[in-house]
Amino acid sequence: MSTPVTILGPSGRMGQALVAAAATRDDVRVAAALDRGDSSLQGKEIAPGVSVTALIDAALAAAPVYIDFTTSTATRAVAEVARGRRIAAVIGTTGLDAEANAALTALAEVAPVVAAPNFSVGVNLMLGLVAQAARALGQSWDAEIVELHHKAKRDAPSGTALGIARAIALARGQDLTQVGRYSRDGDIGPRVAGEIGALAVRGGDVVGEHTAYFFGAGERVEISHRATDRAIFAHGALRAAAWVVGKKPGRYDMLDVLGMR
Ligand code: NAD
After folding, report:
1. Is the pTM of this model over 0.85?
2. What domains sit in the chain, N to C, each tagged with a CATH number?
3. How many A from CA of 147 to the centre of ligand 1?
């Protein structure tokens, strides 16, 4: 039995990847698609019998779970309606503002919500490897993250880079809000001991690349992941959608879906 899914933003880069990936799977099927009123896809059929709508309530009524790779504004608006219907959610949108995060927290009180800054299997493996390295090497090794993305990406550093930084901080017993360093410019003096840097590079059509560096004296360790196809995120999110229906209300991430906890 395939799980019906509502897709948000089918005209976007990830929305298109989700619709294409869903067509190749038998565990999920697209039951509805929601996009902005001015989307060129409005009213068009994007899957058998599924036309794009701008009506949130109608789109959410069609399936027990929705997948959201959009913007903070859309994430908040849709989560508020989903809360009334107790609809499960898979959230890939990054750079969420406080209002969107609050709406997801409220939704997770009544429905299961999987949220992850990165839905690829490889990046989730990388998070575990990075934590292991940080624990083994300790704070005397300087940790820095460099991420590359396409030129249309809005938020920086990427949600994934922040997730990697959080994993390093947690493994070293640090509070990322105190030690995160996301820009360097001017006469800033030597590197502050223990800080965790995350720097963004933007250009072209790069799908997403992350490298965590650990600099020791006379040596360094690099742990890298390179995404070359958005299909990896789409398949991860669709797998999460099939997994999350029927789970208890609460927040989950991709490690729960992959059984890596
Ligand atoms: P995009 O700009 O190509 O697509 C965004 C889509 O959202 C568009 O279709 C747009 O019309 C739609 N949208 C905007 N407002 C809407 C509204 N009010 N209602 C319905 N739809 C609305 O962006 P993208 O490259 O697809 O990325 C989207 C988000 O996903 C970003 O935050 C990005 O960082 C994130 N992302 C996450 C992962 C992951 O694995 N978690 C992977 C890739 C991208």
Report:
1. yes
2. 3-115+230-257 (3.40.50.720), 121-227 (3.30.360.10)
3. 19
